[in-house]
Amino acid sequence: MGNSLSVRAIAGEPEERADELLRDFGPSKPPVDDLESLARHRGVTRIQVDAKIFADGLTLRETEGFAIVLRPASAARYRFTFAHEIGHTHFYRPNETGVWKHASAGAAEEGWCHNFAGALLMPAAWLRQDVRDLSEPSLTALDGLIRRYRVSVEALTWRLAHLQIWPTLILRGERSAEGWVVKTLAKSRHLPGVSTGLRTGALHPGASLLERAASTPARHAAAKIEWPVAFRPRGRIFLQTEFWAEARVQILRDGTMLSTMLVHLMPSAATQDRLQNPR
Ligand SMILES: [Zn+2]
Questions:
Q1: For 23, 35, 133, 210, which has the most beta carbons within 10 A of its beta carbon?
Q2: Alpha carbon 163 to its chain's center
Q3: Cα 10 to chain center, whole Å?
Q4: How far is the CA of 88 from the centre of ligand 1 (A)?
């Protein structure tokens, strides 16, 4: 808690800092592509790609400005790291003699920069509007947002959960020897007091759906899954045990199987019809 206070005392609110930078120097709609230009407006004078660095990215203060060093990565990951590193420039101040010092906020600085990167690449106002314009949540809609904002599914899922604007659960999983294992779970605000009983590392509900998705050529399947989830609206607890879900499985070159599952908690008639009759 002390950390999160001091982190804001140093750098302010990440959403506000990102919005200011975009308002003054960014595009007026997604994607936020020209990160180099935004970085220069934050005083970055050197941007370098280096495969040998230990982290995904580094920010250094040099005499004339900041240097950002980035490890080569997929476009989406590279962009997120780049935006994260721009965030770090908010933690440096010149002292009385004009020498720039890092005002360290410890581990909280990393969380701040993560929030800043999400806000810079997926500004809240744009994403809220896009989600309002979508007729129904779906994996296809999720893909559309990924393309529109040029971000990874992880970054988008995390941002949707952070803003609480997607009326679904999104589970990311990975196949292991034991079965499908949960890597992340993102919840929306339309679900007061939802207790899913899941943690990172737990066995994934809907394993049969994921198996089906993994074995179909399209790797996209929908079905009702059994999964007891507790809801506590206004203190009253009720349990729901069946949900409509759609899942996609991605098989990486090294054979790793990753799943994205969208769980519809209150699907409309149109969504139910779509899920029952996949094209
Ligand atoms: Zn960092």
A1: 210
A2: 10
A3: 24
A4: 7
| Same domain, residue pair 18 and 109 | yes
CA nearest to 104, candidates 114, 92, 95, 117? 92
Residue 42's pLDDT band (cuts 50, 70, 90): very high
Instruction: Give the torsion sign (CA, 183, 188, 191, 192).
Output: positive
For residue 237, give its domain range: 165-276
Q: Quote the ligand 1 centre to 148 CA distance (angstroms).
A: 25
Say how many domains are in the chain: 2
Ligand 1 centroid, distance to 183 Cα (angstroms): 21
CATH number of the domain encompassing residue 172? 3.30.450
User: At which of 68, 87, 121 does a domain end?
Assistant: 121
Percent of the chain residues topping a pLDDT of 90? 70
For residue 67, how far is its CA from the centre of ligand 1 (angstroms)? 13
Alpha carbon of 49 to ligand 1 centroid (Å): 16
Distance 42 CA to ligand 1 centre (A): 16
> Separation of 55 CA from ligand 1 center, angstroms?
9
Distance from residue 39's CA to the centre of ligand 1 (Å): 15
Residue 189 and residue 241 share a domain = yes
Q: Which one-letter DSSP state was computed for residue 43?
A: T
| Segment 218-237, tens digit of pLDDT | 778 999 999 998 888 777 88
**How far does residue 100's CA lie from ligand 1's centre (Å)?**
18
- What is each CA distance from 186 to 10, 168, 236, in whole angstroms? 29, 8, 23
